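Standup notes
- DV: blocked on the single-chain target, sequence here:
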Amino acid sequence: TVATLAEVPTAVARYLAARGLPPRAICWPEFAALDWAAAGVEVEARAANGDDATGVTGCFCAIAETGTLMFASGPQTAATTSLLPETHIAVVPVSRIVPAMEEGFALLRAACGEELPRAVNFVSGPSRTGDIEQTIVLGAHGPYRVHLLLVDGA
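- DV (later): unblocked, structure below
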């Protein structure tokens, strides 16, 4: 948890360093103006491609009941940024945490009206799958790691 959005780059740098991950990421445009250089993280504001190791995104809202992030994709909120990199870091304003899925959909309807987003994606943790012997494999269809940064003052 961080108090302000300005603290996000330092928190991302700490997370990456603690896991021995490179201090590089891509992010949604809304985070481009943060002082990434001061935190020692090289960041590009663009959609992900297959070579990006870490993606930093916001989320439309977070659903407390299931621990799920709700994403509404669009030109400034590319779904690839949360789905392609091995590590996904989501910046979640505490004010955008809703109790249950119904409140998430109500928020989406209020925000979008008739203009629906390209897609609505729900993420409840790292990608995982199990084979016939129920051997769990992480990162099969998306990130190996999902980390949330709660922003208390947002």
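- Follow-up: The longest strand covers residues 87-93.
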